[in-house]
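Record type: ASSEMBLY
Status: queued
Input:
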Amino acid sequence: MKQKPRVAVFDFADCEGCELEIADLEEEILDLIEIVDIVSFREVMKEHSDTYDIAIVEGSIMRPMDEKRLRTIRSQAKILIALGACATMGGVNKIRNQWIPDEVKKDVYGTANLKGNELFDVFQTKALNEVVPVDYYIYGCPIDRDEFKSVITAVALGKKPEIPRYPVCVECKKNENICQFELGAFCLGPITRAGCKAICPTHNSVCEGCRGLIKKAEAECVKEVLERYKLSYEDIRRRCTMYNYGRKECGYDE
Amino acid sequence: MKQLVKTLTKKDFLSFVNNLIKDRSYKVVGVQAKGKRYVFDALSSAQDLRLNYDVTILPPKKYFLPQMETLLKFSLEKPFEEKETLDDTPRIIIGVHPYDIIALQQTDRHYLDQQQDNFYKKHRENTIILGVDIQNVSERSFAASMKTNITDSGFDLLLTDLGTTYAVTIGSEKGNKLLKKYATTKEATNADLKKIKTVREATAKKYKQKIKIDKKDWSALLVANYQHAIWEEHSDVCMECSSCTLVCPTCFCYDVKDNVSLNLTHGTRVRTWDGCMLKDFTKVGSGEVFREDVKERYRHRFFRKGNYLPERYGFVACVGCGRCGIACLPDIADPCNLINELAHFESDKETGRYFIKADTEVSEKGIIHIPRSATIKKITPFNETDSFFEIELDDKKSLGHKPGQFVEISVFGYGEAPFGISSPPGNTPVFEIMVRQVGNVTKKLCLLQPGDKVGVRGPLGNGFDVKSLEGKTLLFTSGGTGMVPMRSLINYVLDPKRRSKFKDVIILYGAKRPKEITFMNDVERWKKIKNVQCELTVDKCEPSECWGGCTGLITTLFPKIKADKLDSKNTIAVVIGPPVMYKFVIKCLQTLGIPDDNIYVSLERRMKCGVAKCGHCQMNGVYVCKEGPVFNYEKLRHLPEAFE
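Status: finished
Output:
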């Protein structure tokens, strides 16, 4: 058998929940290590190697030291996969970008002396692809385990992974849910990338857009729907802040 | 035909249903409440039934064309041990409204045609439909205007609520037996029969939504308004979510993909619901999208319902259930509103036909989704992206194709892609294709080795009518990969056994770059044959490239045709090339005086299923995989989506 690709999992600013989703594959981990060698994965193992083919990176980039580390990872990996909302688009960490980093620091750490401490040297939050080229994206907060498996198997087979470019509504309709709008709620499903099996609306809560917007909040159709449901542009802007702050259309082409 | 009608008390009906559930030889599903809406779902007690429902969120099509269905299982370790998967526990669906019954009858026409879908067929055969007359009308439904609020066929049993009893109309022997076995019934009296009529008439009066144009006139209305601004006005606010097609009982298009187990030992090929409102619906391997503009997709959906399917099958593919009206957030999907709006406008006198009836020879019957096993014999790379493949069918039978037909080649785990057949027909199990690396399947194919297995479905589609070329001068024009299927036809015609049947042959062949002229050996051979003129050109040639021929677009070759050879009325022209080429070449042919009727073209779209089911290759009302890929230009030129 040909040599298995070596995989390393890394994290930056995040909750490690997406890595936990990988760990939660449980007995399927055995299938995973049939096809790849996991050489580094801090959350689940103590071994570490700097020789790897595929880097799976969770989290967003907050500081110069993160940028440096990410560049090193990129230079060592043949394939870089962004894992989860923080890595693919900045995610909740970008909420902070509404304010000036120094002011945020003052709010959080008060008068503590952080000068010269690179751990606290934060700049505006960045997604991975704002620093280095990213080959593949696994969206979501957290990621969908089945999608993770399909991306990993695709990469192992040398295929380009297929990530949906249509909205959550498609999966929501297949699940035969009552539309959240019909229930009087405001759901981001119609403008959010599918792939999550519409898990939130299926469990009767609205979509928060964690897989990224596929339409601009300024699009005509969005305006029309906001108007019909008596919502304002301010409402949608606020709702998009949670995962999509500063992002317009996360793109058909990523 | 007079149908047998029985009655049973409501209490007896509940025990009838509970008896069915207890029996366990059926999966019993029925209409139940889901919040304020209704759904068809597995039934655990007759008490859960809500037969007075207005409309379900999804139609019962989910039991016949499930959201996701496994077509076959394959092993990645032992090539070609694929198995078809069919679940065949019988099912009873309780509470289907007449419009949904009619929608299923319509879907039958499509899925049970010559190229029968055995999955759909099995589900249909295994299902007993227990219909119910509508009692409460959905706010958005306009079934009464569509005359789909009542039906006298398509069910095994049909219930009508008569107050204290149900009348049961028996629609089939299967239904009759079921009733005899599990229920206590009485013969319906004349009063009962009268009451059924009264109940139906009373319900029909409850419809608030009414359509102003009779369904038989939809087609003409749409055709007259193909270019109307309404398509753009409405689609400007379209969310492109395809909710309208997903909830539609008469929409049946699907996508196919291969899923692979995490340990890469095995996988499944599944089909999932797809929607023509989604941008990627018409996307081909090279990235091109054929219905890119949302306006075109929006129009397509209405034309499919009101013109394309009516032309093909004779019925309007809308049953007035109103589901799309409920599902569409900007509320632009409801055909009732759209048709009524169109009716307001003064119609153009413009007439068009967006459908072509072709007598396609159906070469594969029965199992249409399962590929045959084949072995790669030889791979010859032409350049970095294009390779020539010789493939042998493992059953050693001849492929039996006509020039112009195509095959679907599978690499399990990667998927399936269509390829024009490049070899002429012959009594050999070996056939030839050219593979250009554009997507997952083609890239993988080029990494395979002779001896590796692939799957083959086909030959598919409508090829050239080679008999009609006899006695004619033949002008073949091909650009780029268009030479692949053209080579099959040229080699057929130039075969020494047949050469005398045809007059002079003129071959014009263009490519972007010299290295993309892929069949140089053939070209050299053709040039030596008597009464064959062969001219080559490339769009561009770098000084470093070796090229002795012309440079310039394919149209620059036309002045080189030796005029004395061309008796335009007696010449057949065949054109195959990239989409952009047709318009220009056809103009040249017309300048030469070749009538449109003498021009044949072969088109490429996203031929996914190859058997006119999945909908991806459709241009207007035409399935390229069925009516094409070879078309007579005279018939095709009126089709706006063919050469856009």
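Annotation: Strands of chain A lie at 6-11, 37-41, 54-58, 79-83, 136-138.
Annotation: Residues 64-76 of chain A form the longest helix (13 residues).
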